[in-house]
Design brief:
This protein is mostly helical. About 65% of the residues lie in helices and about 5% in strands. It is built from 35 helices and six strands. Strand 4 and strand 5 form a beta hairpin. The chain is elongated and about 130 Å long.
């Protein structure tokens, strides 16, 4: 600093001016280079220029003052001060060295060695302070003290340091989203490269093409933005089609906002161009989608027609730099479902219904879907979702068929994806054409490989036919955008079905981590414990769900059914019946169809587990008594006919088959229904004494169903009467090794299956196999009801016999 001051002082006034201007030019060049390369804000170079302009008169004043002082009697204040102060220091040191130490001091107040100054005091001897009565003041003039090179240089350094602090603060605020300069990404308004829709600029000029010119040119500029990604025109046209609009119509601000809401975009860019004399005023606004709040506003002026493109470039630069400011609390809305409807409100309700379905609240979802189809009677995908909920909950099959059919009838006005989904569900649930359903889902996945519905439902089609293919599809969904709570549930289900318990346990843990609020999670956790052999843990899960005050009626019903399943498995028929009664009461809140389904479960309990024909027939009577409370298509004539045959009441079985034919219209008779009718007819033929024909019909029905694990229990009973002992054993072992897709059936059928294999292997002289199944049955029914204990004792006797033998 001292050397710099000395060097500057040697220069003349004009030399100082030249040096300052040269240095200023270098500073401006450096600042502009940094602005371009490092992306400093555009206001930095003008700000630096202002600082340099402010500094110019200060530097010139300093040069003028210091040049005048140096040529007068006062001399050079800076050098004189430094020199005299140094000399004073030397003199003081010499005097100090001449004085004796304190021990050598003479009389007090007398200096034994007075020292005379080497020369007269300097006029600027700062040791003299401000002067005294006997000495004049030695302080330099006020201007000389203010306009020093030290002050000028330090001031310039501090000014540019302040500019650096200001730029650093700006960048910090911009990068972290703090304050009015925070960028769109940092503030959380959108994720980087999230799409934004650009609306057509409103044209308020005499030139009819000006609005289109500004919009298209701005689009070209914004495409280069690393933050803002404009939604493609083709995508806009696709959304317009789903909105029921002409895809070629201009997208004004209102339409752009509806598109943004549908697609879940965080913001839109809208604007206008107006003429003011020969000038054109271009203004743009980045606006939040959800509440329409202005996030950032921009305005540029073009002097004439020839300056419009330049003004658009400036507008684009401003938008890209700011990237749309907003409060941190503003967030992009979740995208609405990508489905066709002319009503935005109907789409909102549909989307909310989908979210409720994910949480397991189908009842609330159904209410919203009914509102949606009332708002838009041609809302095909809402009808499809209604049908799905009815199907999943086994509610009102007639309404399910009507809704699925309505969606199918409206499919011609849908996008390809939606049309295929509607067709697939229609064929799956109404016509029963599984192959047509599979082909439709595959068509969806060709164009939308991560489609949630197609992945999950195609996997469903493969369950029981190709379980490994189903597992692969569920995993594909869960590891990508196609994940849903349903695909997680179904993966657990199919892994349990193929007895991969450890993998099912891992899948269940992941499912509950991903969907912690899903009421269905405990229901699937129950089955993981059940198939894993931890029945106490299974019961604990079901009991907790039954006591949960937040559980809907559906999941209360589910909890009681699972508690019943554990009791069924262990031969506690009365306890199981009590739990099913609780399930019936909970199901009553969902409507008569749900209640009826639980009564049917009661009938199944006594048909399969108790194996007392008279008791089973009474339960079938109770089920028939409720027929009038449910629509005809919801009445399980075919299932009850099969159970009547199992209970050895062929007349009742035949009457139920005839009633089904007379009551259910042909249009409502699905392929699956016709397959089950073959099975019921086969069981009837068996009870009529024609076991061979009965077995053929049962096998044909199972083949038509495409489910290798379905109706195995019934088939094994028929084989006992028509085949060899080896055939009978093979039939029952197939049931013992297989897992029915309806898990409740396993709880009811497995104990009776073990009991039959215990008897057949013992009768056939196969001690090891007999001991295995007899022991398994005895262990399961150790605490069975008293009326079932004779069967337990019989199995124990066989076990003792084969063991002793």
């Amino acid at each position: 600093m001292k050397d710099l001051i000395h060097e500057v002082h040697r220069r003349s006034l004009w030399q100082v001016l030249g040096i300052y201007l040269a240095v200023s030019w270098v500073v401006i060049q450096v600042v502009e280079t940094l602005t371009e390369s490092a992306g400093l804000p555009d206001w930095v170079p003008p700000f630096a220029l202002v600082l340099l302009l402010i500094g110019l008169p200060i530097v010139m004043a300093t040069a003028f003052v210091q040049e005048g002082v140096g040529s007068g009697t006062a001399g050079d204040t800076s050098t004189q001060t430094d020199r005299v102060a140094s000399g004073a220091g030397d003199g003081a040191a010499s005097a100090s060295e001449a004085r004796p130490s304190a021990g050598d001091a003479g009389p007090v107040g007398q200096d034994p060695h007075p020292v005379e100054p080497a020369s007269a005091p300097s006029p600027f001897n700062l040791a003299a302070g401000t002067g005294s009565l006997d000495r004049p003041s030695t302080r330099p003039p006020r201007l000389a003290r203010l306009f020093t090179w030290r002050n000028a240089i330090v001031g310039g350094i501090l000014a540019f340091a302040g500019l650096g602090v200001l730029v650093t603060s700006y960048w910090f605020m911009w990068a972290t989203g703090v304050g009015p300069v925070g960028n769109l990404v940092a503030q959380g308004v959108i994720e980087e490269n999230d799409p934004i829709i650009l609306a057509e600029f409103d044209n308020g000029t005499a030139d009819p093409l000006m609005g289109e010119l500004v919009t298209s040119t701005l689009r070209v500029d914004l495409v280069e933005s690393p933050v803002i990604t404009l939604i493609e025109p083709l995508a806009v046209q696709d959304v317009l089609t789903r909105m029921g609009r002409d895809p070629s119509e201009p997208v004004n601000a209102e339409v752009a906002r509806e598109i943004a809401v549908r697609e879940g975009l965080g913001a839109i860019i809208e604007g206008e161009v107006r003429s003011a004399g020969t000038e054109y005023v271009l203004s743009a606004t980045v606006r939040a989608t959800e509440d329409g709040r202005s996030l950032a506003a921009f305005r540029v002026v073009a002097e004439d027609d020839g300056s419009v493109v330049e003004a658009i470039d400036a507008l684009s630069q401003d938008i890209r730099e700011r990237a749309g400011e907003s409060l941190r609390s503003i967030r992009a809305g979740a995208p609405l479902e990508n489905v066709t409807t002319s009503s935005l409100e109907a789409l909102r309700k549909f989307t909310e219904a989908e979210q409720l379905t994910e949480q397991g609240d189908d009842r609330a979802a159904m209410s919203l879907l009914e509102d949606a189809v009332e708002l838009d009677p041609e809302f095909a995908m809402a009808y499809r979702r209604i049908a799905v909920i009815y199907s999943n909950n086994r509610l009102d099959p007639e309404r399910m068929i009507d809704a699925a059919t309505r969606a199918y009838q409206l499919s011609s006005r849908l996008s390809d994806r939606e049309r295929y989904l509607a067709e697939a569900f229609y064929h799956d649930q109404v016509t029963g054409d599984r192959e047509a359903s599979i082909q439709a889902y595959r068509a969806v996945l060709r164009s939308h490989p991560d489609d949630q519905s197609a992945l999950n439902n195609l996997a469903n089609e493969y369950i029981g036919v190709d379980d490994e293919a189903a597992i692969e599809l569920y995993r594909r969904a869960n590891n990508g955008p196609g994940e849903s709570n349903t695909s997680n549930q179904n993966l657990v289900r199919v892994l349990l079905k193929v007895r991969r318990i450890d993998e099912a346990r891992e899948a269940q843990a992941r499912y509950e981590t991903r969907y912690p609020d899903d009421m269905a999670a405990p229901a699937y956790r129950y089955w993981v414990h059940f198939f894993g052999g931890d029945f106490d843990a299974a019961d604990s899960v079901a009991a907790d769900l039954a006591r949960d005050p937040n559980a809907t009626a559906r999941w209360q019903t589910s909890a009681h059914r699972r508690l019943a399943a554990t009791d069924m498995f262990h031969g506690r028929v009365r306890d199981a019946s009590d739990h099913l009664d609780d399930a019936i009461r909970a199901a009553a809140e969902q409507g008569p169809t749900a209640e009826f389904f639980q009564v049917i479960s009661q009938a199944a309990l006594y048909t399969y587990l108790d194996m007392e024909p008279a008791r089973s027939i009474r339960m079938i009577d109770d089920a028939e008594d409720l027929f009038e409370e449910v629509p005809p298509v919801a009445r399980p004539y075919l299932i009850l006919s099969a159970w009547a045959s199992l209970a050895n009441d062929p007349d009742r079985a035949e009457a139920l088959l005839e009633e089904w034919e007379a009551t259910i219209p042909v249009d409502y008779q699905t392929d699956d229904d016709r397959a089950i009718r073959l099975i019921a007819e086969g069981l009837l033929a068996w009870r009529r004494g024609d076991a061979a024909s009965g077995l053929e019909l049962v096998d044909q029905g199972r083949q038509d169903l495409g489910c290798v694990n379905c109706w195995q229990f019934e088939r094994a009973m028929v084989i006992e009467d028509v085949g060899t002992p080896d055939d009978a054993i093979a039939g029952w072992e197939q049931r013992a090794d297989g897992v029915d897709v309806f898990f409740m059936a396993n709880a009811m059928e497995w104990p009776a299956t073990y009991e039959r294999l215990c008897h057949l292997h013992a009768q056939h002289g196969e001690a090891t196999a007999a001991a295995q199944y007899c022991s398994r049955f005895v262990d399961l029914w150790a605490d069975a009801d008293p009326e079932l204990q004779p069967r337990v004792r019989a199995a124990q006797q066989r076990l003792d016999t084969v063991t002793e033998g």
